[in-house]
Structures are given as structure tokens and as C-alpha cells.
Amino acid sequence: MANNGTTRPRRGEVEGEKQYDERTLHIDRVARVVKGGRRFRFRALIAVGDHKANVGIGIAKGSDVTAAVTKASEVAKKNIIKVPLYRGTIPHESQAKVGGANILLKPASPGTGLIAGGVVRSILEVAGISNVLSKSLGSSNKANTAYATIAALAQLKPAKDWVTQKKAIKQNKTVRGNTKKVSNRQNQ
Fold first, then answer.
1. How much is the pTM?
2. What CATH number does the domain located at 21-159 have?
3. Residue 3 burial class via C-beta count within 10 angstroms: exposed 0-12, middle 13-18, buried 19 and up
4. Residue 57 in contact with residue 45, Cβ under 8 Å?
5. How many CB atoms lie within 10 A of CB 153?
6. Which pLDDT tens digit goes with each residue over 53-87?
7. What are the structural domain ranges in the chain?
8. CA-to-CA distance for 10 and 162, rounded, in angstroms?
């Protein structure tokens, strides 16, 4: 086989599809009680990201671990969000509560690193965020902690969208000026 400089996609990959880093956050064995006894299945919690501010999480069940992980990674790829970054950190403080889990994320100066533990750390790593301070203020349930972290990241607004004093004053002047011009035209 001659190599003409192009690379073929791996088996299972679609050409042109983004390559994501997958992290298994948690695997559980769950049971359903039936007449003959218990039926065991596996539940997987997966985080996917491209280290370029895109991250998603997914949870799914399967008859074996590999089936659960595959299903969960597909769910995670469908639920990817874009995180606004500012110099390797988040633009502002953010807090989210899901169930009993309460996650607080704060921006950090360059060189600080990721001050986070467990699930939060893995999600921030696959998102490509390098400097953040975090604190888990509630439950240690991994699924709720993961969803709360994603909710906190989804709340972030890029710096260009912030409404500051200068922007508010400038917008008020343009609105007032436009209304006066309109009212003068109507009088003529």
C-alpha cells in the first residue's frame, strides 16, 4: 500500500470528525431485582473534550462495561458546550447547583494550575482550561458534581459581552439620540 501523504481515519471514525479526548469519570454496577434474582448492568459517566474549550459529559447504561462506555461517549459528544476562555482561565467566577452538588469556579492567574479534585478536575482538563480554582460545596455524588460543573461552565459569558459602565452609558446615549431624532421627524 503506497502512502500518498494522506492519512486514513481509524476504524469507527468519520472523516472530518473532531478528535475528542475521552475520560471515564465513574463506572457503577447497578442491579434490577426481578423474579429470578438480580439483573446486573453497568453505568458509565464519561467526559469528552478537545482541549480547545469544547467539553461535554454523558451517562449511559449497558450490559457490559465497554457497551456502557461507548453509549456514554456518544451521549457526551451530542451534549458538547463551548466554554469562553480568557488567557487559559475562565473570564469570571461561576457557581452552579445540581441536586445536592454545588460547584464554585474562580479564575486564576497564569501558573496557578488546576486547583480542583476528582470529577471537576477531569472535566476542566478535557476542556483545555489550565488555571482555575474550584470548590465543591455540596454532595460528592459524581454524576451530580459533573452536571453542576458543566452548568457552571455554561453560565460563563465572554468578556466582550459584559455590560460595563462605559457600555451602558454609550448605549443609553445612542438610544436617547435616536428617539429624539425620530420624534423630531414625526413633528415635521
1. 0.77
2. 3.30.230.10
3. exposed
4. yes
5. 24
6. 999 999 999 999 999 999 999 999 999 999 999 88
7. 21-159
8. 42
